[in-house]
Amino acid sequence: MKRVKHMLSAADHDRVAKAIGAAEKRTSGEIYCVLAHRSDAYFYPAALMAAAIVLALGFLAAVVLKALWITVDPLTIPAAQIMTFLLIALLFACYPALRVSLVPWPLRYRRAHDNAQKQFLAHNIHMTQNRTGVLIFVSLAERYVEVVADNEINAKVEQAVWDKTVDILLDHAGRGALAEGFVCAVEQVGEVLTKHFPAGSSNPNEIEDRLTEI
To answer: Which is nearest to 46 in space by CA: 106, 89, 110?
Structure first.
């Protein structure tokens, strides 16, 4: 398995974990954080976009050459297109970050949203006793933030409330203060959960207090 290069330091992880623990002391809800470097490899979508661009440029080159009365070997343009596409594919293999730049925003957001739902299930946030788990999810390559809450919470908390949490994280991430953004988001979610799901006499910690990087 490829080792994940962490974006946040051990001290940052510890700060977020402590913020989660402090927030959960006041509520029966559970909070979990996930930071994804990217939510998809994007090789095939990026390759499809690159192929479309190469074909369009080849057609444009043929039109321009014809307009200028320049005659070239019929195989020249297809050969150039193939070589260009192979070079782009090689760049995609060596520099994965380049792939994201060619993927349309709607597809990026859809993949990031799907990953948020996947992480919610993968970390058993949906398995809390009272269905009061919350995931704070960030996917860096897509610049995507989402708060995923379980059924009992969604029945009482409107999406507009979570949108404020998303704005907090996006603002901090844009200023290069991602760890601080997670801490503030955790505090915000903790306040919401405390209002609707205050801690009872028995308040077990059902999910580990941590931020996971993937």
So the answer is: 89
Q: Which residues pair with 32 in a beta bridge?
A: 135
Q: How far apart are the first and last CA of the chain?
A: 12
CA 87 to chain centre: 28
What global pTM score does this model have?
0.84
Residue 109 has pLDDT above 70, yes or no: yes
Q: Write out the H or E segment, with its range, that includes residue 154.
A: helix 151-154
Give one word for 158, left, alpha or beta, with left for phi > 0 and alpha for psi -120 to 50. beta
DSSP state letter for 127:
G
pLDDT on residue 4: 47
User: Are 17 and 211 contacting, i.e. CB atoms less than 8 angstroms apart?
Assistant: yes
What DSSP designation does 125 have? G
| Distances in whole angstroms, Cα of residue 205 to Cα of each of 34, 62, 150, 186, 208 | 18, 66, 16, 16, 7
Q: How far is CA 19 from the centre of its chain?
A: 22
Mean residue pLDDT across the chain: 92
Q: Shortest CA distance to 155 belongs to which of 197, 101, 183, 102?
A: 197
Rounded alpha-carbon distances, angstroms, from residue 183 to 73, 134, 142, 190: 63, 14, 21, 10
Beta-carbon contacts of 21 under 8 Å, excluding residues fewer than 6 positions away, are: 205, 209
Residue 44 neighbours by CB distance under 10 Å: 10
